[in-house]
Amino acid sequence: MIDFYTWITPNGLKVAIALEEFGLDYRAHAVDITSGAQFSPDYLAINPGGKIPAIIDHATGITLKESGAILFYLAEKTGRFLPPSGAARHQTIEWSMWQAASFAPTLGHAHNFLTYNPGMAPFAEEIFRRDTQRLYETLDARLEGRDYLVDDYSIADMATWPWVSRFARHKINLADYPNVRSWYLRLALRAAVKRGYEVPHVTGAIPLP
After folding, report:
1. E-strand spans in the chain?
2. How many CA atoms lie within 13 A of 80 on its CB side?
3. Could you give the count of Cα atoms lying within 13 Å of 148 in the half-sphere of its Cβ?
4. In the prediction, which pLDDT does 118 show?
5. Confidence tier at 39 by pLDDT (50, 70, 90)
6. Are 164 and 149 contained in the same domain?
7. Which keywords accompany this UniProt record (predicted)?
């Protein structure tokens, strides 16, 4: 059994979707970051950084934080959604790292400047608007002629999709990125993605472009 500590953010959703895709037994614990629950002593004992998500795998005794590290751990634990060797494995790692190092941080700032605090910092808004568009262009180019980021559906797709699901907060029209739009809708039809999107609780239907 895995205890999964999460909230309704893209980083939380990527692990929720992964747990559903891997078919692992888990218990979801809502950590309401809007009320500061991530800084409670009990949670800081699990993740001293005070961020979600985190897991405790009671089968192995391993506690992990950082959504990307959790995805790699679950893939290796189950032997699924991460090729064991070769170019496909390295490309899956590559695009997972792109998501963690470039896509997610930039889009997180886009949330803050373009949606939550518009007009507060015009220079920053313009920087993150341009960078967000550039990253969507990168993703669109990668998905040209592809169903998934690498050869088959993988943890790289699971990591990236929840961030794209916030496209409205990025001020992005997915019609401008047709390959991303097709990929996004393809994954939105997956039963495990639908279930994961409702963890730790339902916030509404998956946004559709």
Report:
1. 2-6, 26-30, 54-57, 62-65
2. 11
3. 18
4. 87
5. very high
6. yes
7. Oxidoreductase
Inside any domain, residue 196: no
Query: How would you class 193 by CB atoms within 10 Å of its CB: exposed for 0-12, middle for 13-18, buried for 19 or more?
Result: buried
Alpha-carbon gap, residue 43 to 48, rounded angstroms: 8
CA neighbor of 77 nearest in space, from 146, 133, 122, 22: 22
The three-class DSSP label of residue 24 is coil
Q: Which of 10, 156, 163, 188 is nearest to 82 (CA)?
A: 156
Can you give the CATH number for the domain in which 72 is found? Answer: 3.40.30.10
Q: Is residue 35 part of a domain?
A: yes
pLDDT per residue over 111-149, tens digit each? Answer: 888 888 888 888 888 998 999 999 999 999 999 999 999
Q: Is the pTM of this model over 0.90?
A: yes
Q: Are residues 54 and 92 in the same domain?
A: no
Q: Which two tokens stand for residue 19?
A: 């747990």
The range of the structural domain enclosing residue 24 comes to 2-81
Same-domain pairing of 15 and 102: no
Listed residue (44, 65, 66) closest to 56, CA to CA: 65
CB 208 within 8 A of CB 188: yes
Of 62, 81, 100, the residue that ends a domain is 81
Provide CB contacts within 8 A for 92, sequence distance 6+: 82, 83, 149, 150, 154, 155, 156
Q: What share of the chain is helix, strand, coil (3-state, %, to 5)?
A: 55, 10, 35
Domain-located, residue 209: no
In a domain, 206, yes or no: no
